[in-house]
Amino acid sequence: SQELEQSPQSLIVQEGKNLTINCTSSKTLYGLYWYKQKYGEGLIFLMMLQKGGEEKSHEKITAKLDEKKQQSSLHITASQPSHAGIYLCGAGSMTTDSWGKFQFGAGTQVVVTP
Amino acid sequence: DAGITQSPRHKVTETGTPVTLRCHQTENHRYMYWYRQDPGHGLRLIHYSYGVKDTDKGEVSDGYSVSRSKTEDFLLTLESATSSQTSVYFCAITAGLVRNTDTQYFGPGTRLTVL
Question: Which residue of B32, B90, B98, B100 to mutate against A (max A Cβ within 10 Å)?
Answer without folding.
Answer: B100
